[in-house]
Amino acid sequence: MSSMNIYELEFERPLIALEKQISELEAQNDPERSAVGIDADVDLGVEIGELRASHEAMLKKIYANLSPVNTVKVARHPNRPQTMDYIKAFVKDFCELHGDRNYADDRAIICGFGRIGKTKCVIIGHNKGKDTAGKIKCNFGCAHPEGYRKALRIMQLGEKYGLPIVTLIDTPGAYPGIGAEERGQAEAIAVNLREMSRLKVPIISVVIGEGGSGGALGIGVGDRIAMLQYSWWSVISPEGCASILWKTSTPETNANAAEVLHLTAKDNLDLGIVDDVIKEPLGGAHRDRTVAAAQVEKYLLGALRDLKRFKTNNLLNKRYKRLRAMGRTA
Amino acid sequence: MADQQTKSGSDTTKNDTTTARTWQDLKQSDVPEGLWMRCPKCEAMCYKKQVAENLEVCPECDHHYRVGADERIEQMLDPGSFEELWADLGPTDALGFVDRIPYSDRIEKEQRKTGHKDALLCGKGFIKGRGVVLAVMDTRFMMASMGSVVGEKITRCIELATETDRPFILVNASGGARMQESSLSLAQMAKTSAALARFDDMGGLFISILTDPTTGGVTASYAMLGDVILAEPKALIGFAGPRVIANTVRQELPEGFQRSEFLLEKGFVDRVVHRKDLRSEVARLIDYAGK
Fold first, then answer.
1. How many CA atoms lie within 13 A of A51 on its CB side?
2. What average pLDDT score do residues A125-136 get?
3. What integer is the mean pLDDT of B258-287?
4. For a Cys staple, B90 with which of A9, B40, B117, B127, CB 3.0–4.6 Å?
């Protein structure tokens, strides 16, 4: 386990072996750089084609039966597109705005103005970071209270200027630290829930990776919420749940927890928690980031167009009804 | 251990004429079992009836014990004024959740234990003659974790308070959102907060009372949204639990961290109030801010 390359998900190993084989054959087949000991007259094209076909079949098969715990692994894939990737892909003229005017600029949440299609928007998203230094800088996407307060400040700017709000959710959870508690992590999230429920502009949220509990919900209350096909959304991470309910977090208990938590996009759609599931490219967003970004953009354009039609009162009533209906009792 | 002996020893000398005794004293006496209890904080032996009369507060050290919802309602409201609402609303195992035991079995067990459907009792009543909507969480039921029933009853309370212009008083205690209902529990945070926004828009008064322990998703939603937030002394109040934090930051937590007085100092609680003063404090606030 420990020797495993972090970019290599265990259940994708046969795929990666095939990919390696294909690229080796491709290199050999390249007339420019025909390798030593290979007969230049042999055409490897057929073999490559066959390997590609079986690669695709395998990819389809693996992803058609992805278990919940493996879905969580895909959602955390280091190559999975993050907020900044989506912003770069389809937000025009992004203008980042910093700080909560109170304590700090929390890099775990990115906020700013930008255009999606022709619509001027406020854009808010968790920021996980890529390389080690970047990840540390933004605390692996685990926001502090100042992150939630910054997000609210910028969302209120959106309300003031009549700009719809788009939030991209991707966090393991709000940060459980001393400073976070001292500065009111719970209060910051709670206030966001209350205020987002009454902001007088459309709010659209997309869970792009991890939807970890209150830290995710803290920028995830609004008129529409969609999940990318292989993202997760739950009250607690599978590891956290396993360590409480099974008293220990092991690969096995984590898998059990992921199963019972019903954290996949489809589960949450069935439970009435999210409105839509955005399809990812075959084999997950990390395999084709361009297509993934195009899918998210298409969804946002549609939702922005739909929500624009509502008068403010209607919008807020519908938002309340949507939240009001959530839950199951006997 | 030596420390404990010193403590209980000094208690005996201090209190030899009162009801508090040491464990050793009790064993020597012929008091029937079950009438006495040992304070988990100061270790004094207390007469249970006296503790109950003292609102479940240790007569010796003022430690506030956890109180079941029924008893809390009696403590808070004018006698006989409680009119319970939605008592029949019960939980359901929508996810088929099984950890070490199935959620449905857990529900049954907790219901048998407490005689209640879920972890919150609510209704209408009067506090020193002032009409209120009151909800009380009960740690005896699955550590008062918040699932669909708790969220739904609180939302109905807020809506009732909005319609009837009554203040909404909520006595919080909870281990957090109920894992067994996963994202359905999480959604209750948004639902209750949205209802509070509407109540706020109508000028309603929401007094949130934090008792030991108030943590997790409950703190990160309605518990922290009071117009006025009161806390009982030394209650544990936080977003993440102390153990999770200690494991994350790998350092010792400061003295008194996440206790009521700490939150008061950091500016997140309006007043720390002794249980005996809760009724009069709430009544006073209603006179200032209620309709």
1. 18
2. 94
3. 98
4. B117
Residue ending a domain, choose from A19, A43, A65: A65
Residues 13-72 in A contacting B (C-alpha not used; CB under 8 Å): none
**Count of CB atoms situated within 10 Å of the CB of B6:** 10
**A21, A83: one domain:** no
What radius of gyration do chain A's Cα atoms show? 22
**Which residues from B are below 8 Å from A178, CB to CB?**
245, 249, 251, 253-254, 257
Query: Hey, what amino acid is at A81?
Result: P
Pick among 3.90.226.10, 3.20.20.105, 3.10.20.30, 3.30.200.20: CATH of B65-289:
3.90.226.10
Q: What domain range is A27 assigned to?
A: 10-65
Model pLDDT, residue B225: 98
Per residue in B78-112, pLDDT tens?
999 999 999 999 999 999 999 889 999 999 999 99
Domain boundaries, chain B: 65-289
Asked if A321 reaches chain B (Cβ–Cβ under 8 Å), the answer is no
What is the rounded distance in angstroms from the CA atom of residue B19 to the CA atom of residue B238?
35
Question: Of chain A residues 274-293, which have a CB less than 8 A from chain B?
Answer: none
How confident is the prediction for chain A on average, in pLDDT?
93
Average pLDDT, chain B: 90
A265 touches chain B (CB under 8 A): no
**Number of domains observed in the structure of chain A:** 2
Determine the 3-state secondary structure of B271 from DSSP: strand
Positive or negative CA dihedral for A284, A289, A290, A296? positive
Return the exposure string of B158-168: e unless at least 16 CB atoms fall within 10 Å of the residue's CB, then b. Answer: bbbbbeeebbb
pLDDT of A33-88, one tens digit each?
555 555 555 678 888 899 999 999 999 999 999 999 999 999 999 999 999 999 99
Q: Give a yes or no: residue A4 inside a domain.
A: no
Q: Are A288 and A281 in contact (CB under 8 A)?
A: yes
